[in-house]
Amino acid sequence: MAMNTQGRPTRxxxxxxxxxxxxxxxxxxxxxxxxxxxxxxxxxTGVDFPAPAGINRLGAHARVSDICLPGxxxxxxxxxxxxxxxxxxxxDMGPFPLGSCTMKHNPRLNEKMARLPGFAxxxxxxxxxxxxxxxxxxxxxxxxxxxxxxxxxxxxxxKAGAHGELCGMIAIKAALEARGEAETRTRVLAPExxxxxxxxxxxxxxxxxxxxxxxxxxxxxxxxxxxxxxxDVAAIMVTNPNTCGLFERDIRAIADAVHxxxxxxxxxxxxxxxxxxxxxxxxxxxxxxxxxxxxxFSTPHGGGGPGSxxxxxxxxLAPFAPVPFVVKEDxxxxxxxxxxxxxxxxEGEAGGRLTAFHGQMGMFxxxxxxxxxxxxxxIRQAAEDAVLNANYILxxxxxxxxxxxxxxxxxxxxxxxxxxxxxxxxxIDFAKAMIDEGYHPxxxxxxxxxxxxxxxxxxxxESKQELDQFCDALLSIARRAKAGDAAALKAAPHYAPRRxxxxxxxxxxxxxxxxxxxxxxxxx
Amino acid sequence: xxxxxxxDHEWVRVxxxxxxxxxxxxxxxxxxxxxxxxxxxxxxxxxxxxEMAVVESVKAASDVYAPISGEIVEVNQSxxxxxxxxxxxPTGEAWFVKIKPADRSEIDALMDEAAYKQLTEN
Amino acid sequence: MRYLPLSSDDRRDMLAVIGAKxxxxxxxxxxxxxxxxxxxxxxxxxELEVERIMGAMAAKNRxxxxxxxxxxxxxxxxHVPATVDHIIQRSEFLTSYTPYQPEIAQGTLQYLFEFQxxxxxxxxxxxxxxxxxxxxxxxxxxxxxxxxxxxxxxxxLSGALHPHYAAVTRTNSELLGDKVVSAPIDIEGSExxxxxxxxxxxxxxxxxxxxxxxxRDLRPLAKAxxxxxxxxxxxxxxxxxxxxxxxxxxQGADIxxxxxxxxxxxxxxxxxxxxxxxxxxxxxxxxxGRLCGETVDAEGKRGFVLTLSTREQHIRRxxxxxxxxxxxxxxxxxxxxxxxxxxxKGLRQMAMLSHEAACKTADALAxxxxxxxxxxxxxxxxxxxxxxxxxxxxxxxxxxxxxGGVPGxxxxxxxxxxxxxxxxxATECVSDADIEAFAKALKEVL
Lengths: 524, 122, 446
Known about the structure:
Shape of chain B: globular
Largest interface: A-C, 209 and 205 residues
Strand content of chain A: 5-15%
Order of helices and strands of chain B: EEEHEEEEEHHEHH
Largest sheet of chain B: 6 strands, antiparallel
Strand content of chain B: 35-45%
Strand order of the largest sheet of chain A: 1-7-6-5-4-2-3
Radius of gyration of chain B: 13 Å
Distance between the termini of chain A: 65 Å
Shape of chain A: globular
Largest sheet of chain A: 7 strands, mixed
Oligomer: heterotrimer
Structural class of chain B: alpha+beta
C-alpha cells in the first residue's frame, strides 16, 4: 500500500476569503500587462532579416527623424498579446447577446478557407486571367445573395454595413438625378428607432433627415409616415425586422406609400439574419438593402471589424451600382472597373467607386463557406432557431422583467426598465451585473425610443441548456434588484479585469496615445 | 434682474443692458457630466434660435441655441477650460455667453421661472 | 446541422413554453404570401465537401508566392511573421465585438491604444484613430474632414494620386456638392499643385511615394497650402515606406491617411485592409471613426475606453463626423502585432531591403533595350515605359510565370498616356533569382 509520501495535502482548506492583495497585482490567470512601449525594447526587433547590402538611393528623401517604436522578441510579443486577449469576452467563451449585433458562432472552416493561398495571397491587380477563382467566389456569393433576397442585382464592394447604406443611398441619389429630381427630392425619412448610421448616411449624401415616430406597438406609424410624404421626399430608410426586434407588419403599405410619392425604399438589412431563407425582401417592395456578412453570414466581428456590406438593388436602382463589378462572359469572369467601361458594356451609368479594389474578399470567402455549409435549408433553419431562441427568452423573462412591447418578437427580445423602477438599479447596473455572471451584457440604451432599453439577441448558436442558465441568471439579477441589493449591483462588475471605467475623465482630458515620461531612447 | 427661460433649456438674465446666457440646471443634470463646451467667437451675431454653442457629455451632444438675436460681446472661456463647472454652477459661474440684444421684446416673450418649471416637470 | 445546437425535442419544448403552436406562428407579422418563399439554393454540406468546392476555386488563382512577383500599386506582398496570424485567430480577439463594455474588452482597447500610438509615431503626427476600412476610404474621409475644419468646399487631387483613391474621394465629396479638381496625370512627379490652391480650397491631397513611385518633397506644398488656409492631406499606400522616407508629419502634413495592409495584413485580393488616419491634436474633434483613450477604473487602475464618441453616428446621428461604425479592428490587430515584432529597427531593415530589391530590379530591367525607367527617385516602386501596350506584356509575362507589375491601362484605362506604362514594385520577398527571371522573361516577350 503506497502512502502519500510527499505529505501533500489533497483537499482545499476552507477558503474563508476576504480581499487579498497580491504582490504583482495579478490575480492568478488574470495577469496585468504593461504597454509595449513600457517594456524597454526601443532599438530592438523580433524579426530576423538578412543584412541589407547597403544600396541607398533615397538621398534627401530619407527619414532622419526617429520613429521611436519598440521591437519585442517573439516570446515577449506572444505573451503580451495572449495576456491582452485574456481580458476580452468572446462568443467562443459564452453567450454574447448584443441586440442588433448578431454575435453568432464563427465557424473555423471559414477561417481555413479564407487562408487558402489562392485567396489570401492573391493581389487585387493581378491579371484577371490569374484570378478567375476569386472572381468566381464573388459571382457565386452574389448569386446566393440575390436568390435569398429575391433582388435582381447586388453591389459587392461596400466595406461594412454603413458603407453599404452609403452605396444604396448614392444609387438612390443617382436615380433621382437621372429622373431630374435630385434638386427637389432632398428629404429622407427614418424612424426614431433607426440605427445612428441611417441619419448619418443620409446627411453624408446631402439629404436632410426627418424622423418618423413609432406607433404604440413599436412599429412605424403608417399614418404619420403618410403625412410626412411629399414631392420632396427622396427615400425612406427602414430597418426590417426593426431595431425593436419586430417585423414591420405594414411593410408593403410602407413601400407602396413611398413609391406612390415618388421616393425609394432603403431597407437597413442589419437584422436580415431573422428572416434569411424565410422571407425575400424583394417580395416586400424594397429598392435597396445592405447585408452585413459579419452578422447574418457568420464572418467574425474581430473586435469591431472588418465587416462587409453588399447591397442588393431593385431593377430601378441596379443601373446605379458602383464599380467595380464582376460579369460572367463566355471566356470566364470579367471585372468591370470603371464607369466608362460599364457604359461600354451596356451596364448603364454605373455609380462612382466606393473603395479601392473589389471589396472585402476575405469576408466573401468566409461568408460563402458558411452558406455552402448551411445550404438553403440550413439558413432557413438558422433564422427559425434565432427567432425561437429570442421568443423563448422573452417568454421566460417576462414574469420578472418588462417587455417593451406586447406579442412575439423576431430574433431579439426588447425590455425596458419599468421593472427596475424604485429599486435604485438602472439598466447599466443590470448589464454590468451580467458580466459578473459570466455573460456579455445585452445592448443597452438602444433603441432610443424605449426607456432604459435592454435588447437581447441570443442568435441560433445557443443551446437550450445555455439559454436556461442565462435566463435563470437574469431572473436572479432582477430579483436581487427588487430585493434591495442595489449597492452591490451598482458596484458591478466585481470580477472583471477592470471595475467600471471613468469615461468622463477620458473625455475631459483625452489621452489617445502613449507618450514617454522622459524622452525615449533613440533607436540604435 | 429676472431670469427668463427657453423651451430648449437656456436661461437669459439681463444685467446692465447685456443678456447673460447659460443652460439650466435641469439641462445640466440631464446631460450628465459635461466634458466639452464649444463657444462662438466674440463679435459674431446670431439670429434667435440659431445654433450658437455646443455642450457635450460622454453620451450626449447638444446644440445650444441663441435664445435671442444679437451680437456676442463676451464668452466664458473658463467653462471651455473646465467643463465640469457647467455641472457645478450652471446658472451662475458657468454662464456661456453675453449677448448684446438686438430686440428687447424677444426677451420679454420668453418663459418665466414658473412656466419653465412647469415645462420640466411635465 | 453542425452549427445548430437545438434538437427537435428542444424546439418542441421551447414552443410549448412560448405558447406557440409552430415556429411560423412567430412569423405571423410577415405577409402570408411572402413567408417561406421558395429559394433555389443547394442543401447543406459537410466540411469535406465544402473544402472541395472552395479549394477548387482557390486553385484557379495564381498565388503571389507561387513565383516571381512584382505587383504593387496600392497593395504589397510583404512577409508576415507566423505569430501574427496565430494571435489574430485567438477566440478572444477573433470573436469579440466592438469594445462597448470596457471592463471585459481591455484586450481590444489596449491594442487599439497601442495601434494609435504606433500610427502616430510612424506618420509623425500627434493623434491617430482606431482605424478605417482602408486607405482609399480614409482618403475620402480626410477630404470631408478638411471641409469641416476649413468650412470650404474645394478639393485638389494630385495627378499622381492612386486613381482608386481619387475616385473614392470624388464619389464622397461630390455628394455634398463640393468641387473636386484633379491635376492631369503626372508620371514623373513634376506637377505644380501649389499654384492650384486658392482661397476656396479646403485641402490638397498628394500621395507620397506617389502612384508611379516618385518620392516628393512636400515641404513647399505644405507652405503653399498653409498660406492659403488649406490643409495638406498626405496619402501613403505603402506603409513600409514610413521606415525609410521622410515622414508626412515632418514635411508639414495636416492629415495623413495610409493603407496599412503592408504591415501584418497580407494581400487577400484587395480586402479587408486597414486604413490609417492621423492628424494634429487641434483637429482631434473633427476626426472620423473610433478613438480609444486612457483612463482609470473605480479602483484607480489604468484602463482604456472608447472616447470622444459624441463625434460618432450612434450619438450625433445626422450631425456625426462620419457614418462609419464598423472599423477594421482585427486588421489593426494584425498591424499592431507585426509592428510590435518589427519595432523601428525591423521596420527600417524591411524598408531598406525593399528599397534595395527595387533598385536591383530597376537596374536589371532598364538595361533591356526598349525599356525606359520613368522614375528618378523611388522607394520600392517605379514606373517603366515599355515599347508597346503594357497590358499585353503583363499577360505574356504571366504566361511565363512572372507577375510583372500593374499596366497603366489597368488604372487609367481611358488615358493613352498610360498605355505603355508598367508600375513595378519590389519588397523584401523578392529574391535575386526572381529579378533575374523577370528580366529574362521581359526580354523574351518584348
